[in-house]
Every structure is written in structure tokens, then in C-alpha cells.
Specification:
Number of helices: 18
Strand content: under 5%
Order of helices and strands: HHHHHHHHHHHHHHHHHH
Largest sheet: none
Number of strands: 0
Amino acid sequence: MRPRTWVLLLAAVFALLQLANVTGRDTPDTKNYLSYALSLTGESKRGVAAATIDYVCASKASTARRDQSVHVVRFHRPDPTDRVMDECREREWRQVEPRLAAGQTGGHTVPYMTERFMRIFEARPGYPLFLVPFVTLLGVTWGLWAAGVVIACAGGVLVFLILRTLSVPVPLALTGQALYYVLPCGTTAMRPMTEGLLMALTLAAVWGCALVLREGRRRAGYALVAGSLPALFAVKHSQALFLGVCLAAAGALIALRRYRRGRPPGRDVLALAAVGLAGAAVTVLLSGLLRYPSVSDSLQDLLTGHFARPDRKDPWPEFWQLQGNFWVEWLRRQAWEPLFVAALGAGAWGALRRGGAVGVFLVAAAFTGILTQAGHPDIDIWGERLIVLAWLLPVVGIPLLLEPVVRGGRVELPAQGQAERARAAG
């Protein structure tokens, strides 16, 4: 079969596997994004609240039913679905109803919490806009599921495209796609929240860097990088800032290293760094003009339990103390289960040894996951989703690390493209 057939087959298998869990994927943030999307369809605020609450509660009821069916003591008890649904609806409406009655109806999201907290989600229209056609055509449950499948499959395809642009043989490029699906990237991308779209857009930027630096396709490559940053701004502006800064830093490091070796820094490397720096600057400017939540708001949200307590007068000392405590505990847990750290190390080795300048940009893009986690040093954050972008490093880097083994004669493969033939001739 042709490579594109294998790519589509892998994506189709992944999509079929996701039918095992159509419900039960919601997160604490899901109701905010879903209510935003439903409001964009023209539904009334109360209608949006009812649809969102029904989805969240049906998901909890489905999870409770499945959990009870395998509980060693309660498996023979009556189906808990109706009870869990009723309790959940009563609890959710108890939060929403008083705020609606008090006139907290501005914006697109349903007022599950204070206006100050909901402003965080009002500043993220990108993911709700993406959801609109899915929930309009397929309804809430299947619409969210289908949107997750599209996002997750797109991320895997982008991994394949990056690896092929780096002249990795097709079997290893398919391995990278499969790794994206089976590692936490795929699981997280299927959740109804922004992280899946963030990973896909970040991978698109990395692919753009690869097109510019490896294939000389400057117009397409720069368009991908320059287009990914504003798209990220719409989805979550902090990620646009982090990626822009990291791309600029990667380009500066490559240029400095080449300069010290007596080589020209490279026009394309400097141009990519400039695009990243411009993206970061525009992000800061636009977020200020649009009055998006600031770093100070983020700190207060973190340290006051989503504004449930009074603001801290001087939050920075507490933040840095929490930051140190967090990473000590995080490293302790990683030493206990070192899969993630080992995967990061292997991915970084493969990216830097085999990916050249593109590998440096890949490491920079994956580092945005570390920055995101550092901005929210909460060890109990739901599902470790904030750091998930760091998994992009082993997903792309490990196939690069394995490339010499495949080409060393243990597995014979035909030459792949002009870049490989040029390398073989050199």
C-alpha cells in the first residue's frame, strides 16, 4: 500500500478504538468550552446551560454505571444512572441558577463560577469556534467525540509529515504517528478541551520549520509557522506567547552556535526566529489591547483557588516557593515512575543528533509544555494535561533516534527522496 494509505489506516484504527469511550471524557473545563460553542449557535443562555449540564451529568452517570458494574461489592446493585443524573443536575443548577437570576449573563460561557474566573475562558474563542460545526450537525455528545477524533488524527498525521520531511523512512514515520496515538498525546487530544488543538497547531509550526530548513519550501513553511501563532492565540494566547519565545530562542541558539564555529547563521534560521519573536510581541500587544487576563490574574487564580479566597497582596514570593516545592515533588514522582523522563531524554537525543536545526526547533516547541506546567505549579492538576506538549519530543524524536538502526542494515529499506540521495552521495 502507498504511504498515505497506511497513514489513513492508522488514523481509522485509532478512530474506531475511540468508540469504546464516546462518553466519560469530559474534564472540569469541558462545560466552559461547550457552553461557549453552543452560545455561538444562537441558543439562549438558559438553553445553553441546560444542554451543557445534561452532557456533563450524562457523562458522570455513564462513568458511575461502568464503575459500579466492575466493583467487587456493588456490581449487583441497581443501575445508578438515574440517581447520579438527578444529583448532578441538582448540584450544577445550584451553581448556575443564582448567577443567572442575578444577571450574570454577559459573555458566551454559562456562569458556573465568578465572572472573574469565567473571563479566562472568554479569552479562548478558538476551540469553541472549532466545535460549532460538529455540535450543530451531530449534537453535543457525538459532536464533541467527532471533534476529538479529527483533532487527534490530525496531530498524528502531522507527526508523520514532519518525519517524512526529515527524510525518515516510511515505517519509522508511521511509528511516530502511532506513538502520538498511544502515548498521552492521543488520550489528551480526545478530551473536550484545548490541549489537543494546541498540540496540532504546535506540530504544524514544527512542520513549517522542517519545510523551510530541509526542503527549501519557504513560502509554505513560513505560512505554516506564521499562521500557527495567531491560531494559537485564538485557542490559548499563553501558548502563542510560549511558542513564539521558544522559536526565537531556538533560532538564536542555532545562529550563535554556527557563528562560534565560523559558519554563517543561515538566513532561514534567523527568519524563523524573527517570526517567533514577532508572534510573541504581537501576542503581548493584542492581549493587552483586548484586556485578556494577565500574569497577575493567573497568579491570583492559582493561589486563591479560582478566586474563592481573597487576593494575595504579594503573590510572587508564594509563587516561587510553590514553584520550588512543585518541581521537587515532580522529580520525586518521576524517579518513582521514570517513563516520561526517559522518553524525553531519548526524544531529545534523537532530535538533536539526527534532526539538525529542525531538531532544535522541535525541542523548543516541546519545551512549551514545561513552561505551561511551570505557570501552573499544581501537582494535582487534572490528568497532567498541562505538560502534555512535552510528549511531542519523544513522539518525533524517538523515530529519529531509531533511524540509524533501520538504515544500518538490520532492516533494509529503499532510499527515500532527494535529501537522502544527496546525503548518501556526500
